[in-house]
Every structure is written in structure tokens, then in C-alpha cells.
Amino acid sequence: MNRTTPPLDFASLFAPGLPPPAAKWNGFAEYNFIGGHNDADQVPLDDLIKAMNDVLAREGRMLATYGVASGPLGYKPLREFLAQKLKRTAGIGCDADEILLTSGSLQALDLVNGIFLTRGDTVIIEQATYQGVLTRLQRLGVEAVGIPLDGEGIRMDALAAALDGLERRGVRPKYIYTIPTVQNPTGTILSEARRHEMLRLSAQYGVPVFEDDCYCDLVWDGKRLPALYAMSERGGVIHIGSFSKSVAPALRVGYVVAPWPLLSRMLALKTDAGSGALEQMILGEFCPVHFEAHVPVLKRASGKTRNIDGYAQPAFRNRGRIRRSERRHFPLGQIPVTSRYAKTVRAGARRRRRHQSRRRMVDRPKLRQKPHAAVFRQSVARNDPRRDRCPGRSVPP
């Protein structure tokens, strides 16, 4: 080999429009607020180990077959459990063949987007929403119309106005994406009256509802409200969920609930030869025996962290809208734009500001005018020099 030959320039071959390169992972920050990690002490490890041993001893040789003899929808015992659970807890009447198991709810998002969206389409989302949704819509070249929220979730007056305005322009949104139960990032729960109104607007304007219920098992106070999928009388809802928050996120098991005509289209795009079978088999063995007892234990343990008086709350006391969260995740609840411990910015603006400034927090309320994601800062320094520069701001010790 000629040693003077320059190395191949892979960058010159990259497809146009790629997102910025990922940063190299150097471990978690000391105070890690990135992502919805679970409490490691609450992972039901002993029961998962037993479930794995039992199911492998009984059915392990089926791992030699793609789909473990359950077909492309996923491990059938787990789908059967989900059908029973969804009926009991969410009021959803479906059978196992109306459930598609996926590699986490993110793959479910991709499959739903794949059958509906193309560049230039329009969707309706909550103005503060899951960052994974925003990045996908941006990459697809889809216009996202953000609807503001209040203490009861997405505002129906604003949704009606947006739908009417789009109809006047001759634009029919492909779907209304919502996280109605323990909304990410606000933690709100859409009231039953608003759920009925959303379904009414969906029917009036001919726009389906895309319901993301991945946090629904972690409702603390009172009974969980029926899912939009269960309340719909015209079948205009697609429902997705996950075991990430109720059992463990690293298992990467999510699901889609939809009629077969839609699932058949998603399966045509799901060309991964099946999501991880071992994880599905473990959950299919664990959940029928332990899930119903495990979730209340998880919620009780998580409840001990709900009142954050000893740490974050003193930093925000008398400073506005930070309040106690009534849900497990995103414990700062209603995140104001001016909070020092959250950034609420559009995805593009976030990248530009990181490049332009070393500061971790910039207050720009005007960015609320367009859809945004709440991104928690990676760390809180113990000895923060901003104490001297910003005497009016409190930093947790």
C-alpha cells in the first residue's frame, strides 16, 4: 500500500441534510437530568431474573426462529397481556392482533410517521412537547403547529382556532399528536371534558389523533382517565405506549395499538426482522404475574421524591411558576421559560445558541411563540461562579 495515499474522505459521501454529529459519550454528569431514567433501586431485578430463567427454560429454543413463532407483530403472550391490561386500566377494547410490539415507543413514532408524513406536511402538536418528536418532524421537513397548554393540558380553544385557521388555508393536518396523561414536559393530565372535545374536533375536521401514553401507568392521584383510543366512537385514534417508565427503559419495548389496516402498513415499513425477542419474552413472563403489584410499589417509592423542598424548591421559591409536581417524571412540573434549570427553545435555536455562547441558561420568553422542547441541563455545579455574578439567584448546594 502506498503510504502517501490520503485517507478516504467519508464526509464527502454523506447524504445531504444529515443532523449534526453526536457528541462522544463521556459518562453521566454528576447531576443527570437528561432523559427519563428510572430509579435503579426500583427495577424489579429478582423477578426479571426469574422470568428470564423460566421463559428460556421453557421456550428458549424458539430464539432460533425470527419472531419466536409469534409472527411479525411480536411475542404473542406479551401482546395478550397488553390487551388485557389496556382494557382494565385504559378502557381500550382490542385483541392481541391489534397490537404491534416495537423497539421502544420511538420506533412506534417512526412507524406512524412513516405511513402518514412526507415533506411539506403539517401536524398539530402541543407547544411544549417531547424532544424526540420535534427532532423527527424537523428531519422529515414537516411543519409543526404548536398549541399552548395550561394546567389541564392542551387548550381546546387554541386547538379549535388552529384547526379552523388551517382549514381556511386549505391545509389538512395529518394528525394531532398529544401526550394526554402525564404530559411531557409539563406533567399535566388532560381532563375528561377536554378529551371529549378533542375527539369532537378531530371528527369535525377529519384529523386523526396520535395518542402517546408512555407515562400513563405513573398517575399518582386518583384513577387514570380513559384513553382517547377508548373514548373515540369513530376509530380516529392511534395509541402508542411503552414499558420504559413502568419497568425499565433499557429493555426497549414499546407498542402500537391500531386497526389491522394501519398495522399492516406499518409492518411493511418495519424491516428490522422483528424487535428484540428476548426482552419481549422476559416481559411476557414477568408482566402477567408481577406487573399489577409492581406499579403501585414503583409509584409509592417515587412519591418520596415528589416533594423536593430540600433541594430544588428553595432555588425557585418566590420566583414564579415552578411548583410541586404530582407525577413521577419531570419533577419541576410547569417549567417557565425563565427557569435557570431548564431550557425551552426550538431545536434549531438551541444548536445555534450553544455554538454562540458558553452560558448554560439564557432567558428568551419570545421563543414560546413556536413549538419547543424542554431540555434539562446536564449538571449543576457545586461551586458555581455565577453566585457572584448573579447575587439575586440561588444555586442549590
Summarize the structure.
Helices cover 35% and strands 12% of the residues. The chain is an alpha/beta fold.
Question: Can you offer a commentary on this structure?
Answer:
- The chain has 397 residues and is an alpha/beta fold.
- It has helices spanning 45-59, 76-90, 104-116, 131-140, 156-168, 192-205, 228-231, 260-269, 277-303, 312-316, 347-356, 386-389, and strands at 99-102, 122-126, 128-129, 143-147, 149-150, 153-154, 176-178, 209-212, 237-242, 254-257, 342-345, 372-376.
- The strands form 4 sheets. Strands 1-10-9-8-7 form a 5-stranded mixed sheet. It has a 3-stranded mixed sheet with strand order 3-12-11.
- Helix 2 packs parallel to helix 9.
Helix residue percentage:
25-40%
The secondary-structure class comes to alpha/beta
User: Outline, from the CA principal axes?
Assistant: globular
Give the strand tally: 12
Mean pLDDT: 80
